[in-house]
Amino acid sequence: MLTFVNTAIDRLQRAFPPNRIVVLLTPLLFVPAAGFASASVAQLVPGVQFDPVEVTAVFVAGAAAALAKAYKWLDGWQRDEARKQGDG
Known about the structure:
The protein is mainly α.
């Protein structure tokens, strides 16, 4: 049973390495979640009132930060892959 599980995990990791997961989930999950979280926090700050345009700007800033982090991670992944192959 353990051998079957290890084989399944190996196949899954080959089919979906971390870089593919990041590429797939960043626009679908991570960016909207970061925007929603940042906009929610901005609305919950006590004593500060934001109009809808400002909340939208905070949403976009949070989403852009998540997108930048994903780009930076993928750039590092590619550099590491190139180093492993001896290309860089």
